[in-house]
Amino acid sequence: MRALIFGDVHGNLVALEEMLQKERGEVDLLVSHGDVVNYGPWSNECVQLLDSIGCTCLRGNHEEAFLKGSYPGENAIVKAFFQHCYASFTEHDTIATYGDGVAVGDYKVQHTLNDRYIYPDTDIETLNLQQNAIIGHSHHQFSAETASGIKLFNTGSVGQNRKFINVINYIIYDTSSAELSLKALVYDVDVVIDKMKIDNYPSTCLNYYQQKKRL
């Protein structure tokens, strides 16, 4: 079985559709590990699309915030994104059905571990991993392995790459061969920014996207 495992779409329909167009016909299973919503201008549409194609969807911290109706953090930019995106969000019932984690082959897929942002330079020995895991949350794609041989993969972000804003990251996992591949695609992020301008995003949100590096 081949699985497409991804996450942190963050309302970016353009990036989501680009990835699905390339990979959907080549896989047997689709798994989103969370944060379909917020930031980008298409939170509703991304939720609806994944629901319509039978994707197994897990809940991230941004789904939690949308279900509660408030963002718990102190970051002013994230708060601005939340206030703008949440005002027009309607898919509460759908994201309420999202699970916490799912087993795929030899891996447990979930949004993150211990509510932490886990980066390429994180000492994964401190995570006390008990099984192979595939996560997201930090928007950085990487793989690591503990001294005892437990593997950790971060898919990176589909819709809001923190290194290069115009790059889509995800994973293809072949459970039969045990091969797990980190994937990347370049897309036109200006389409997203133009839609944000049409939707009257706050300038602080537009600046966040416009000032990011591109590949």
From TrEMBL:
Pfam families: Metallophos. Residues 1-120 form the Calcineurin-like phosphoesterase domain. Transmembrane segments: none annotated. InterPro entries: Ap4A_hydrolase (IPR050126), Calcineurin-like_PHP (IPR004843), Metallo-depent_PP-like (IPR029052). It comes from the Bacteria. PANTHER family: BLL5683 PROTEIN (PTHR42850:SF2), METALLOPHOSPHOESTERASE (PTHR42850). This is Metallophosphoesterase family protein. It comes from Pontibacter toksunensis.
